[in-house]
Design brief:
alpha/beta; 24% strand; 6-stranded mixed β-sheet; Ubiquitin-like (UB roll); 604 residues; Nucleotidyltransferase, domain 5; single chain
Length: 604
């Protein structure tokens, strides 16, 4: 088969590909991240490139000759570090709960000064270690691998029986993963990860003192193959698709590990553990487990619980004898990230009724206390992450995160970095909807009032749109999309309360999780009907609760074991089978709601 050279001019990259390859695939192979929300199906129109002054879609353009290809900036998927780093992920209640569990890392180092063999003490070398360790751990089975036995005798005698034993906790057992001469206990590090559909967040932790040494967050490279889990599941069914998706997220993980460890001058050989939390699809894709049945009725995953394994088995580049542990999930739509969030906020240990809302690519909701918990997933879609909207974008530099509209219908927009607006993120859309409602730009049905005299309102072929800033608009289609998303979240909350015959007044704490919450204005979210109209003091932002719970599990075996109790005790509610859910959802498709009595503080 013929091969042709593709020259991506703006990126200064050349690659040879076989005849018949599409340009999107060529870009992926050369390491160029492009927007491909539909997974290369030609539906989203995001992967535009220019060839001989003609604009085409990369995914629909087949290579039949040598080509010079220009990829415009707007077609590139941003995959650098996000603007916010550790402070955005280590604040609020998640830090207050760091001491909620006994400090007992999943992997710990223990220095032993063993007595040597004698006539009256003729235990084997391994039993001599076991005996000493058993004094420190009650009723736990201890084991080790054959590879550790091969040089154990030499290590013990060369070190005068003074060694450091690295122990990994695996369920109700201890696994000796390394035996080193001398005292090396000062160097023991681990990573906590939140594996999200949109972003991957990781933290480097000193396992001797619980210090967070650094945080990084990057856009999930799987976005090359689709912006949502369904598109990625479909892509995984293609030849090599599952492997490609796994490699993409592993690249993210290993880049974060290398970046943070390098910044702290820490050798990868001193990193012995990673704990990962993520939704069910992300875990299947990471571990190369076929996710096909997740999108087929009755939507059953292969597993919701993932055994602790050695890091090389999954491809995580730390000490080859280190471990990778995973937070368990509940069902297809409530994964380990939600269980991790429950650990972080303490919902499962509280006597009071609490509500956890994680507004991400999907909306996961858990209601309950120490005695019982129920959970549901709201089909909110990715609108609140800026996806699927005319000028939507993630909360990075240039994203409008807040806005005010004055009496003359003029807009004052605030961006994440204070610079020139490039688009609108989720919190910006909420502020805009609130302000547009207050100023009469839109009615309760979400339609723009075309009779208002304002330069910012203009008619298009598909309805009206409202200009927020130069070349940045919010359309009636956008508003409809956002209305459905907010309706899905609110109606899910009410449906869970109805299920257990409780009311909003019974809730004593509402935790808002996810990066979305970092910029969310509660008053505005209530005004549009996204969140319940209740005492504002019970709302609390907890940042990336999935990452926080993974960190707590890394630092405490008790926290990790608690996760196993939590996933077994959350009763999943399939909202689609709830008789009154659709009525609740339809009633919520107005701003703020068809029943204004539910929103007494809102005055329109």
């Amino acid at each position: 088969m013929k091969e042709f050279t593709i020259n991506f001019t703006a990126q200064n990259k050349k690659i040879k590909v076989s005849q018949g390859t599409d340009l999107l695939t060529a870009a992926i192979k050369s390491g160029i991240m492009m927007h491909a929300a539909c997974g290369g199906e030609g539906l989203c129109g995001k992967c535009k490139v220019v060839i001989d002054k003609k604009e085409v879609l990369a995914c629909q353009t087949i290579v039949e000759s040598d080509l010079n290809v220009n990829i415009p900036k707007e077609s590139l998927e941003i995959h650098t570090k996000l603007a916010h780093e550790s402070e955005e992920f280590t604040k609020g209640v998640v830090l207050k709960r760091e001491d909620a569990f006994k400090f007992s890392p999943l992997v710990r180092k223990i220095y032993l000064e063993l007595s040597g063999p004698a006539q009256d003490d003729n235990l084997s070398d391994l039993d001599r270690i076991y005996r000493e360790i058993s004094h420190k751990f009650d009723n736990l089975r201890i084991s080790t691998s054959l590879s550790n036995l091969k040089h154990l005798s030499e290590i013990l005698r060369d070190s005068d029986f003074k060694v450091t034993v690295t122990i990994a906790c695996k369920d109700d057992a201890l696994d000796i993963i390394t035996v080193e001469p001398g005292d090396t206990t000062k160097t023991n590090y681990g990573f906590a990860f939140d594996i999200g559909t949109t972003t991957i967040a990781g933290q480097l932790i000193d396992l001797n003192n619980k210090n967070i040494l650094g945080t990084r967050i990057a856009f999930n490279k799987q976005a090359l193959y689709g912006s949502d889990v369904i598109t990625r599941i479909i892509y995984a069914s293609n030849p090599g698709g599952l492997a490609g998706l796994s490699e993409a997220v592993l690249d993210n993980i290993n880049e974060i590990i290398l970046d943070l460890s390098g910044a702290q001058n820490i050798a990868l050989s001193d990193v012995y553990s990673v704990v990962l939390a993520g939704n069910m699809t992300m875990m299947h894709l990471l571990l190369k487990i076929d996710p096909a049945n997740i999108r087929k009725a009755p939507y059953i995953p292969t597993t919701t619980v993932f055994e602790t394994i050695h890091a090389p088995e999954v491809g995580v580049e730390i000490n080859p004898k280190g471990i990778a542990a995973f937070l368990p999930g509940v069902t297809t739509y409530i994964g380990g990230d939600t269980v991790s969030g429950v650990i972080a906020c303490g919902l499962a240990e509280s006597d009071e009724l609490s509500l956890l809302i994680d507004i991400g690519t999907n909306g996961e909701i858990v209601l309950g206390n120490r005695e019982w918990m129920i959970g549901a997933a709201a089909s909110a879609g990715p609108a609140f992450e800026g996806s699927g909207l005319e000028c939507g974008m993630k909360a990075v530099k240039g994203a409008i995160q807040g806005a005010e509209i004055d009496g003359d219908i003029n807009v004052k927009a605030v961006t994440v970095d204070g610079g020139k607006p490039k688009g609108i993120c989720g919190s910006g859309y909420i502020d805009l909807l609130c302000q547009m409602l207050k100023r009469g730009v839109i009615g309760k049905n979400g339609k723009i009032d075309g009779t208002l005299k304002s330069k910012n309102i203009r008619k298009t072929g598909s309805g009206y749109e409202f200009t927020v800033a130069e070349d940045i608009v919010i359309t009636e289609d956008d508003i409809e999309n956002l209305k459905r998303s907010k309706g899905a979240i609110y109606s899910a909350i009410i449906s869970l309360l109805n299920k257990v015959e409780k009311s909003i007044a019974d809730i004593k704490k509402i935790y808002i999780a996810g990066g979305f919450g970092n910029y969310l204005n509660i008053e505005n979210a209530v005004f549009i009907g996204l969140l319940p109209d209740t005492d504002r003091s019970i709302y609390e932002f907890i940042g990336n609760s999935s990452l926080a719970g993974a960190r707590m599990s890394l630092l405490s075996r008790d926290a990790f074991m608690k996760a196993n109790d939590i996933y077994k005790n959350i009763t999943y509610v399939d909202l689609s089978s709830e008789p009154k859910y659709m009525d609740e959802y339809v009633a919520s498709l107005f701003f703020p709601h068809t029943d204004l009595g539910r929103f007494p503080s809102v005055r329109l």
